[in-house]
Amino acid sequence: MHYGRVSNWSNSDDYGAYVEGRLASFNVSLPARAMEVYADAQSGSGDNFAAFGAMLTDIAAVCPMQNLSRVAAEHFDSNVYLYLSTHRNNGTAAAAAAAAAAHRRASPVASAGSDVEAIFDKWNATADADREFVRNMQDLFYTFARTGRLPQNRDVTSGVYLVGKKVTTLRELPTCSFWARTDGIVPDFARMY
Predict the structure, then answer these.
(1) Is 161 exposed, middle or buried (0-12, 13-18, 19+ CB in 10 A)?
(2) I want to staple 133 with a disulfide (CB 3.0 to 4.6 A). Which of 87, 138, 141, 180 is the partner?
(3) CA pair distance 38, 30, nearest whole angstrom
């Protein structure tokens, strides 16, 4: 570790100490549980950087958006939809330029705005999975623009759309269920837009 940052994300001890330093003040068992939940969510890939990025994103944005969407769904007559981009690639022009400018490896985490770049065909889709992600994002967006509904017409009370190489839905995001059981992290540390 260097100045409170992880110098080598592959080093599980450094990563564990970093997460512990951030979460242990809430509950001493929370860091270990969080790392376990996010290791499972990353399919045991061992990508600590992606796991920590997903953890922060869930706390600051994804889980609060899910909660807000559900509250809205309870108070509106029309369906409220929520989708999450799960495509982990840096095929966007902005992400590729940022990584090149920083002279570092590109992040394995979906970048902010990747959905918008896919919708407007600004994604640098070179692989089949990239092209399928772009097609899926465009299908969701243009179906909604044309009909006011998403394919399958599942509102947030029925599930969250996960958009990547395929479009799937989950009734509940498991990582958000985890944070909901913690004491006040979500929504207290949510990023309010």
Answers:
(1) buried
(2) 87
(3) 12
